[in-house]
Specification:
Elements (H helix, E strand, L loop, with lengths): L1 E2 L8 E7 L3 E9 L6 E10 L8 H13 L2 H4 L4 E8 L2 E3 L2 E3 L9 H8 L3 E6 H8 L8 E5 L9 E6 L3 E8 L4 E5 L12 H11 L7 H4 L2 H11 L15 H10 L4 H25 L4 E5 L1 H5 L1 H4 L3 H7 L5 H4 L4 E4 L4 H15 L1
Parallel strand pairs: 2-5, 5-8, 10-13, 13-14
Antiparallel strand pairs: 1-8, 2-3, 3-4, 6-7, 9-14, 10-11, 11-12
Helix pairs in contact: 4-14, 7-8, 7-9, 8-9, 9-12
């Protein structure tokens, strides 16, 4: 987190969920107590449209569009910002192979004249949003018995697989990012063991996100039956994950149905592994775009059964609350609230 000199004051928060495909930017208004935020203006931009320019150019365009909004134009000035992005944050700088720029918090704070800029990993940003989400932003898969102040964990499958942990520090939950998605894929059924052997022939190291991400659907489908092909499988513009999951939910392709079943089971197993590693008795949260798009399958019991299938710990894991984050803007809200917290500190 980078800070510029200046008196702390109420105002507006600039926040962004910065991705390799698109950047979701928004302005939030602080309430009079400086504890809650209200969304004032939001807009998405294709990242590649600014690849040859700069992130600052995108911000200037965003602020120009916001100035034309009556709600944003009539609000107070921006005093702080927060940005979440996939990748590592080192010394206040984003390092990500998905972004066309390297973003530095102190440079943004200086150029925009802000009190502070919070830089977060995208899963860390999502984790920071959890206590601020509305009840209808979360779907309960397993009610469980939450342990007060118990550790929580978050995983999100999308373009990749991200994981984060939340620990109670005596006053509040503190989010800690991780690179759990890059850990080895851990098969736990005979079919998953065969899948691992299949993938090992393609790549020397099979990390969890090779299976538990969007690209994992095509890999599993080809493992199950390489003779079954769909239009999206060929060419660089096809979205195989979308086609496979849609056909699976529609029950129109048996191989797609089997693919989705295996994927969700492996996802549930990975969530159970994460819960054991951090003793997440406060709850497990499943975020990311994929879970929202396959909700009927997430709700049919496959995920929860695989989550609990840990031998003698099955009854213990059955007590862990499991929730799906439905609000896909959660990283944006988390970045905004972290920006607010950094400004107040």
């Amino acid at each position: 987190m980078a800070k510029a000199e200046g008196r702390k004051k109420s105002g507006m928060i600039l926040a962004g969920d910065v991705g390799g495909t698109k950047c979701n930017l928004a302005l939030f208004q602080e309430d009079s107590n400086r504890t809650r935020l209200q969304l004032i203006f939001q807009r998405r931009y294709p990242t590649q449209d600014y690849a040859a320019r700069s992130f600052q150019s995108m911000l200037q365009d965003f602020l120009g569009h916001a100035a034309k909004s009556e709600a944003a134009a009539s609000s107070k000035s921006i005093t702080a910002a927060g940005f979440g992005s996939a990748g590592a944050v080192v010394d206040g700088r984003f390092h990500s192979s998905n972004l066309p720029w390297v973003l530095a918090g102190h440079e943004l704070a200086s150029e925009l004249g802000l009190q502070s800029v919070a830089m977060l990993n995208d899963l860390e940003a999502t984790a920071c949003s959890l206590e601020h989400l509305a009840p209808n932003d979360v779907l309960v898969l397993n009610e469980g018995v939450p342990q007060p102040h118990g550790a929580k964990a978050l995983l999100a499958a999308g373009t990749g697989l991200g994981e984060a942990i939340l620990f109670w520090n005596g006053n509040q939950y503190h989010a800690v990012p991780s690179e759990g998605g890059m850990a080895d894929f851990t098969p736990c059924t005979e079919r998953e063991i065969e899948l691992l052997r299949f993938l090992k022939k393609r790549m020397p190291s099979v990390c969890a996100e090779e299976v538990l991400s969007g690209r994992g659907f095509l890999a599993i489908h080809e493992f199950l039956d390489s003779a079954v092909r769909h239009p999206s499988f060929d060419g660089s513009t096809g979205d195989a994950a979308r086609e496979i999951t849609q056909q699976a939910l529609a029950q129109s392709c048996p191989t797609c149905v089997e693919t989705l079943d295996l994927w969700v089971s492996a996802y549930g197993s990975e969530a159970g592994n994460l819960a054991l590693r951090v003793l997440a008795f406060g709850g497990i949260y499943v975020a990311g775009g994929i879970a929202v798009k396959i909700l009927p399958k997430m709700k049919d019991g496959t995920f929860v059964r695989a989550f609990c299938a840990k031998g003698s710990f099955a009854s213990i894991l059955a007590r862990v609350p499991i929730n799906v984050v439905l609000n896909e803007d959660a990283p944006l809200w988390g970045a905004a609230y972290q920006a607010l917290a950094c400004k107040i500190d």
